[in-house]
Write a structure and sequence with these properties.
- The structure holds 2 protein chains of 2 kinds.
- By secondary structure, chain A is an alpha/beta fold.
- Helices cover about 50% and strands about 10% of the residues of chain A.
- In chain A, strand 7, helix 18 and strand 8 form a beta-alpha-beta unit.
- In chain A, helix 10 packs across helix 19, helix 14 packs across helix 15 and helix 17 packs across helix 18.
- Chain A starts with 7 loop residues before the first helix and ends with a helix.
- By secondary structure, chain B is mainly α.
- Chain B has 14 helices and no strands.
- The model of chain B has no long low-confidence stretch (mean pLDDT about 90).
- The chains are: A alpha/beta, B mainly alpha.
- The interface between A and B is large, with 36 and 38 residues.
């Protein structure tokens, strides 16, 4: 077993875990499963035992032991049953950056050939079709047909000031195509000079990085950077928090990076977006990749507060403590039932607020919440903040 | 045999074993990959890390010292999570750090340095530390900080075995670590009590702590003084008692890298790295 997928800092983090179990109180997956090996502490302890057997004192004297295949298989199942929500990192008293540790562990497992079949299929799709669904990538902007008025350039200009990077989920999943539709309309109404990348937009690499296949994501990163450069844009804006976060962390670009909430907030401040009054009680769900991972908590809240008549009721767990909807970390890909159980927990929290609707800023959260609600026939209204903004714009 | 000499004869191998234990971990940590230096050897990686750490520290030394005190020693994050846990942990950490500091001052300024001061006048301050006005305070603080460790240890034992929060899982290692600390503290107070209860032990110079004025024992060595009330009629070999406390103390130092006590170093690093990352993000 090689440890090169982990950084020396991450190996120190593994030794820093004191098994205090604070993470257990917050891990949404542990709350559902209750298995020690699935929680952050358990995963770290198992991996520590692997390290010991390969690099410990006895291994140095008598040689490394052969790792038990069954144990590895079980470990892989546990490591991939995680939403990468990062709540364990927030709660960890010794500040272990667990989210990055999990992706590094997944990288190690990929190197050892112990990763889910579904991840293999996803990788094939992404590398061949350049999107997670495996559809023809040229169909990325088919949702534009639903616009009432479509300009001749189809929002795919040669040059523009801003590029709107739509992301795979919003491009290909009909349930959430309303989000890019709404955002395109907002940008048009506000007079923003923007362009889409169309068929030249490739997956940002987030699903591969999350699955422990960071090296494979490099080709996607380089392509997207080149496309953005070609358009000569000064800023790139994302409605998808995962794409936004991936760009912030992995892309080396001079362009300014914005999440749609930050961009809309700026347009409001500039007086380019005005709202009509709307009497409504809403609650806000912080997407993991936007909140905990990127630290964007206030922009969406400020947008909601800017709409006259809208009352924002916070959920019991909000901001850094916000519970994952179950849609993160490729969990749905490996364990749909577990993902739905987390979504149910989220729905319970939403309903407890008594709000008319839940607003979020992520297509994956909207999709996960609505899919579970529909399957279980729970009457709940959920929408992305872009849709909500458009509905209430003057 | 002179206890100073005996102590150092045992202490130096202890330090070597401790460093060897730590080096085993450092060697594993350096198996990790370093972005931008993928082909670097372990030695080169270590050099890169030391260089980075050194540079970053001197870029804002005040900030690092502040973070070390507030976030590592006084564990601010834990304070927000559980006051009880914070108190127990802080008593242990602060107690150990402070005891270590006082012990170092005592160890370095007394004994050989005093003898050395007779030939090199510059070191004459050592005499002040050994028998002068500073001495009672050094002794008092050593006693006081050790007492804090004892309280913290008892609180941790109560939490683990009586309060038993749901998330806590007790393994052999946890029991060993806590009982080890408890033993070191109790044996330390016991040996002191025995010294106070038996003035002939001081006269015979069985122990290193021979310079505490007997009249001030009640406040300087308050813990030992309390125990001494019960030890006047107890007779134990004084040298044996010394070994009974010192040998386990040294074993404990060797045990650190091989136990969860390693987190003394590792979690300090993770906390500092986390705060440093947050600071960089702000900029």
């Amino acid at each position: 077993m090689k440890l090169s997928a982990l950084s020396p800092k991450q190996l120190v983090e593994i030794d820093a875990c004191t098994r205090c179990g604070e993470c257990l109180k917050f891990c949404p997956v542990y709350a559902q499963r209750g298995e020690e090996e699935i929680d952050p502490r358990g995963k770290i302890q198992v991996f520590k035992s692997f390290i010991r057997s390969q690099y410990g004192l006895w291994a140095k004297i008598f040689g490394p032991k052969r790792l038990d295949e069954e144990k590895l298989k079980k470990f892989s199942e546990m490591v991939y049953r995680c939403t990468l929500c990062g709540e364990c990192s927030v709660s960890c008293p010794v500040s272990i950056d667990a989210k990055h540790l999990w992706t590094a562990l997944r990288e190690t497992l990929v190197e050892m050939g112990h990763f889910p079949e579904a991840a293999k299929r996803m990788k094939a799709n992404v590398l061949k079709a350049h999107n997670i669904s495996g559809d023809e990538n040229e169909e990325r902007v088919e949702w534009l047909e639903f616009l009432d008025e479509l300009p001749d350039h189809h929002y795919q200009k040669e040059k523009a000031g801003t590029a709107f990077f739509v992301g795979c989920v919003a491009s290909f999943f009909p349930l959430v195509q309303k989000i890019p539709l709404a955002f395109v309309e907002i940008l048009s109404k506000a007079g923003v000079d923007f362009t889409l990348l169309g068929g030249e937009e490739w997956c940002c690499g987030f699903p591969l990085i999350g699955a422990g296949m960071k090296k494979e994501a490099e080709v996607l990163i380089q392509h997207n950077l080149e496309m953005v450069k070609k358009k000569g844009v000064k800023s790139v804006v994302f409605a998808c928090p995962s794409c936004y976060h991936t760009w912030m962390e992995e892309y080396k670009t001079d362009a300014d990076i914005f999440h749609s909430t930050q961009f809309v907030k700026r347009l409001i401040d500039e007086g380019k977006i005005l709202f009509k009054e709307k009497k409504m009680k809403v609650t806000y769900h912080d997407p993991c990749d936007l909140g905990r991972a990127s630290g964007v908590y206030e922009a969406p809240r400020e947008i909601l507060r800017a709409i006259p008549g809208v009352e924002l009721i916070e959920m019991k767990n909000n901001r850094e403590q916000c519970k994952c909807c179950g849609g993160g970390g490729n969990l749905e890909m490996v364990d749909q039932e577990l993902s739905a159980a987390l979504a149910q927990e989220k729905i319970n929290q939403i309903q407890a607020t008594g709000a008319d609707t839940v607003i979020t800023a992520c297509q994956q959260c909207v999709r996960t919440i609505l899919t579970t609600a529909r399957r279980r026939e729970i009457p709940i209204s959920a929408m992305d903040i872009t849709e909500f903004v458009l509905k209430n714009m003057k | 045999m002179d206890k100073h000499l005996l102590f150092y004869v045992m202490f130096f191998p202890t330090v070597i074993f401790f460093l060897w234990g730590m080096s085993l971990h450092v060697s594993i940590w350096l198996e990790g990959g370093l972005e931008g230096a993928e082909n670097a050897t372990k030695r080169e990686k270590l050099k890169i890390y030391i260089g980075r750490g050194w540079g970053e520290f001197w870029a804002r030394p005040g900030w690092y010292v502040k973070i070390f005190i507030t976030e590592v020693i006084f564990h601010r994050k834990l304070f927000g999570q559980s006051f009880y846990r914070w108190l127990a942990h802080t008593l242990l950490v602060f107690g150990f750090v402070a005891t270590f500091a006082v012990d170092m001052i005592k160890g370095l300024t007394t004994g050989y340095l005093v003898e050395f001061s007779h030939t090199v006048p510059f070191f004459s301050f050592a005499r002040e530390f050994e028998t002068g006005a500073v001495r009672p305070f050094l002794d008092f603080f050593l006693e006081f900080f050790s007492f804090l460790i004892l309280v913290g240890c008892i609180m941790a034992i109560v939490r683990r075995f009586a309060i038993r929060p749901d998330q806590l899982r007790t393994e052999e290692e946890d029991v060993t670590t806590l009982l080890f600390i408890l033993f070191l503290e109790l044996s330390g107070f016991f040996i002191e009590g025995y010294r106070i209860a038996h003035p002939e032990v001081v006269q015979a110079k069985n122990y290193l702590a021979n310079f505490t004025p007997a009249s001030a024992n009640n406040w300087i060595s308050f813990g030992g003084y309390f125990l001494s009330q019960f030890l006047r009629d107890v007779r134990i070999n004084a040298d044996f008692l010394w070994y009974f406390h010192v040998v386990p103390s040294l074993i404990w130092i060797i045990y650190i890298p091989h136990s969860k006590l390693l987190h003394i170093f590792t979690s300090s690093m993770t906390v500092m790295a986390d705060r440093q990352k947050a600071l960089t993000k702000q900029y």
